[in-house]
Amino acid sequence: MSLDINVDIGEGFPFDEALLGIATSASVCCGVHAGSPELTEQTVGLCRQHGVRLGAHPGFPDREGMGRRLPSLGDAPEWFRSVREQTKVFISSYHPTYIKPHGALYNLLAGGSNAPVELVAFGVSYADFLANLGIPVMLLPVSPIAQRLDSLGLLIKEGFADRAYTEDGRLLSRTLPGAVLEDREAVINQVRLLATKVDSICIHGDTPDCLNLAHLVRQALGGDQ
Questions:
Q1: For a tag on the chain, would you pick the N or C end, based on fewer CB atoms within 10 A?
Q2: Which of 217, 208, 207, 224 lies closest to 187, judged by CA?
Q3: Rounded to an integer, what distance in angstroms lies between the CA atom of residue 63 and that of residue 180?
Q4: CB of 188 within 8 A of CB of 217?
Q5: Chain centre to alpha carbon of residue 121
Q6: Rounded to an integer, what distance in angstroms lies between the CA atom of residue 158 and that of residue 191?
Q7: What does the radius of gyration of the chain's CA atoms come to, in whole angstroms?
C-alpha cells in the first residue's frame, strides 16, 4: 500500500532527522511560529539530503502559543500579513512543491474552528492568495476552501494517524475525550482506512512519541515488518 507520509518539522524538536528517514514529505516551519530562519535553512538542507518532498509550513506569529491560537480581530490584519510574507519568502528561497498551513491557520482553512465570520473572511482571502500561487496545498479535504482548491487541482488531501474524527470528517477537538488515539490497533486501523481517502498521512514532529508513531504508520502501510 503506497501513501505519502508527511512530517511537520523545523520547530526545534529533537526528532527531525530521524523522522526524515521514514517520511516522504516534510512541511518545514518558516521560523515564525517556532524555530528560526537559521533552523529553517538547516532543516531544508536535511530534507534535500534525505530526498523528501519539501513543503512550506507557515503559521501565525504567535510563538507563545506556537501558532495554535487564532488572532483577535485587531491582530488579524498583521497576523495574516505575516503568513503571506512567510509563504512568499519560503517559496522564493526554497521552491517548495506544496504549502501546508500550520496550527490555528490550518484549522481555520479546514473549517475546524468556531471562528468569527471576520476571521473566516481573512482565511478565505489567504486561501485565494494560495490558489493564485498555483502551488498545491495540503489540507483536510472537507471544508469549502479545500473543495475549491481540489476543483483547481491544488489540493493534497491529508489525514491524521492518531487523531479521532467527527462524523463530518473534521478532527475531534483535543479538549474532548478520545481525541488522540493511543491504542496501537486503533492507529493501524485508522491509517488503513485513511489510505483509501487521502493522499498523505501526517505525523507531528513535536509529538513525544512521534518516532514510534511514524514506524507504526509505515507498518500499517506495509513498509515495516
A1: C
A2: 217
A3: 24
A4: no
A5: 21
A6: 11
A7: 16
Task: Give me the residue label for grid cell 476552501.
Answer: 145
pLDDT in tens, the chain (225 residues): 579 999 999 999 999 999 999 999 999 999 999 999 999 999 999 999 999 999 999 999 999 999 999 999 999 999 999 999 999 999 999 999 999 999 999 999 999 888 999 999 999 999 999 999 999 999 999 999 999 999 999 999 999 998 889 888 988 887 889 888 888 899 899 999 999 999 999 999 998 899 999 999 999 998 654
Q: Give the chain's count of helices (H) and strands (E).
A: 8, 7
Give the cell for residue 215: 514506524
Q: In this structure, what are the phi and psi dihedrals at residue 198, rounded to the nearest 5 degrees?
A: -125, 170
| Cα-based torsion angle of the residue sequence 30, 202, 126, 179 in order, rounded to the nearest 10 degrees | -120
Residue with cell 537559521: 38
Number of C-beta neighbours around residue 63 at 10 A:
12
What sections of the chain are H helices per DSSP?
16-20, 37-50, 76-94, 103-109, 117-133, 144-151, 184-194, 210-220
Q: CA dist 21 to 1, 46, 139, Å? A: 18, 10, 23
Distance between CA 99 and CA 116 in Å, rounded? 24
Enumerate residues 6+ apart whose C-beta is below 8 A from 69: 60, 62, 103, 104
Neighbours of 46 (CB within 10 A): 17
Burial class (CB in 10 A: 0-12, 13-18, 19+), 197: exposed
